[in-house]
User: Which sequence fits this backbone?
């Protein structure tokens, strides 16, 4: 039985780190007191230690301890033994680079497919898709591949943002970018707004939170889906 | 003598394609009646033909003819013979992928270093820097490298955008992204606002347009520079 939470963001406006999700995480991680944290995405260039400290404080509120994967001598072994995994946000390219460098892609896939609950936020959600080709992040390092964990049969666009109709800026809107993605790729993309998440249980994929999500399918007009929609039909 | 224009955007708000630059381009391309256009960045997935058509119309206003590089059997040969080059905007990853695929990186560098005037806008400006690691674009294809033409000794961030202090969106600001870039890279980055461009003549690099540009140097607080500032001291 697979258990995955793919969240658009760690933090919603005006709220603390992971605060909006904590109640759900208490249930989601009910079978473990310790979470293995992967801090590789390094938001704002935070060190692995400093990032792990933030996560420790958040999870202490639901009585979970947290250990950073960088604290283990053998990260592959740490993943095998983990009873709960959290991959935090930051830069998706930095995260992907480091996962490949430490040879962790297959180990992560195995752990999740063997039933270890996986929580991803932002960059940690991007890597749940087929590729990281719909990240919003700046490509500040060159990873050996854009292929990701493929835990779901589509791509994720976290922090999905509707076009600002008042803007005079000529850069592309998010929707234009995803449309360009579909000139070169065929898989669906789920635009997850901040505060939304996908809850995967085995092959069921349900949209959670109070907001709709925007679905981009190849050669189709984008459309909105309501919370509680079953999304496992997308592929 | 090198002649390069590195423009933030092709189009400013409320104005036609290249319109704000046409007077300068007339002078810049004064020694040629024909421009070789590289349409590889394919904005909105436009075909090479359709994109070239837009550029033809714009340049006809200053009595220049335009031919797309895709119209030539041998693009390397076309670059060698060109008397003026324009690389348009779109997706920087798509552009870079196609330049590598067609083996044009060295030919472009040689042409520019031998004095062929080069105009870049947006993605076509990104590739003038050392790497494409400060592009704003979505990584919709995987290029064989992030290394770019290195026509200037720093990186470009086109369409530079100041933080929106009213936003409730939790995604990173442009400044935060460039700061993260400097956790892994040391070269300066020039944030070029829409309507600004750099004019390179041999080793002189002057900021043009009416707006200031934002300079990000490794381990320094970002700062603004005024139009007409000589930027060749950055490295």
Assistant:
């Amino acid at each position: 039985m697979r258990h995955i939470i793919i969240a658009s963001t760690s933090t919603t406006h005006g709220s603390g780190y992971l605060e909006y999700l904590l109640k759900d995480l208490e249930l989601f991680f009910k079978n473990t007191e310790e979470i293995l944290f992967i801090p590789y995405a390094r938001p704002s260039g935070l060190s692995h230690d400093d990032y792990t400290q933030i996560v420790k404080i958040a999870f202490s509120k639901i009585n979970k301890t947290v250990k950073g994967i960088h604290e283990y001598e053998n990260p592959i072994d740490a993943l095998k033994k983990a009873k709960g995994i959290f991959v935090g946000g930051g830069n998706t390219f930095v995260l992907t680079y480091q996962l490949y460098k430490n040879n962790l892609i297959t180990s992560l896939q195995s752990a999740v497919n063997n039933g270890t609950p996986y929580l991803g936020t932002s960059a940690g959600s991007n890597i749940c898709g087929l590729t990281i080709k719909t990240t919003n992040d700046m490509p500040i390092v060159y990873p050996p591949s854009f292929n990701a964990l493929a835990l779901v049969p589509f791509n994720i666009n976290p922090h999905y943002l509707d076009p600002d109709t008042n803007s005079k800026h000529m850069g592309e809107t998010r929707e234009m970018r995803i449309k360009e993605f579909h000139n070169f790729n065929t898989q669906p993309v789920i635009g997850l707004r901040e505060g939304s998440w996908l809850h995967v249980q085995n092959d069921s994929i349900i949209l959670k939170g109070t907001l709709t999500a925007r679905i981009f399918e190849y050669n189709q007009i984008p459309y909105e889906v309501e919370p509680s929609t079953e999304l496992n039909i997308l592929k």
Observations:
- The radius of gyration of chain B is 17 Å.
- The interface with chain A takes residues 9, 11-14, 42-45, 90-91, 93-94, 132-142, 145-146, 159, 161, 168-172, 176-185, 194 of chain B (CB under 8 Å).
- Chain B has seven helices and eleven strands.
